[in-house]
Write a structure and sequence with these properties.
This protein is of the alpha/beta class and about 150 residues long. A five-stranded parallel sheet has the order 2-1-3-5-4, sandwiched between helices. Helix 4 links the parallel strand 4 and strand 5. Helix 2 packs across helix 3. The longest helix is centred in the C-terminal third of the chain and has 18 residues. The protein starts with a strand and ends with a helix.
Length: about 150
């Protein structure tokens, strides 16, 4: 599975470790930056680039990392077709995929240990969408609204 990943300075060191670990687990990881540590960089360009890549490549998933994950989630959700969820527990990682068919997740590097973040990411990546009709109906309603306001 292809995984698009991005962060700013807040998650830079963690991202480097996660990319290596995911590749070791057999994931095809595309790193959208940051590629060097810069304490003054801005997360939106990195997150938006990763989000657009997820939309452009159906079947791929994305991960954006920040200090809290909040801004990164917001930036990713600016891209039409992205459903990015802020993940902070095993349950939120699973439900984002099972109920919302989220194609991206955001996580806070300053909120969890390295091991916790990796476990949340793997849970997200390995959990399929349930396909339940009520969940699909809700996703379709959001997508219809998104198309109507961006047309």
């Amino acid at each position: 599975m292809r995984v698009h990943i991005a962060t700013d300075h807040a998650g830079f060191e963690l991202k480097e470790k996660i990319v290596a670990d995911l590749r070791e687990k057999g994931y095809d990881v595309v790193d959208h930056g940051a590629h060097v540590f810069d304490a003054l960089d801005d997360y939106p360009p990195f997150c938006i680039e990763a989000a657009q890549a997820v939309v452009d490549e159906p079947g791929s998933l994305g991960v954006v990392i920040g200090g809290s994950g909040n801004g990164e989630q917001m930036a990713a959700n600016c891209v039409q077709g992205v459903r990015a969820a802020l993940v902070w527990s095993d349950a939120t990682a699973r439900l984002a995929r099972e109920h919302n068919d989220a194609n991206m997740m955001a996580v806070g590097a300053r909120q969890h240990s390295e091991e916790e973040v990796l476990a949340l990411i793997v849970t997200f990546l390995e959990t399929p969408f349930s396909g339940d009709k009520r969940h699909q109906r809700r996703i379709d309603l959001m997508a219809a609204y998104e198309r109507s306001v961006r047309a």
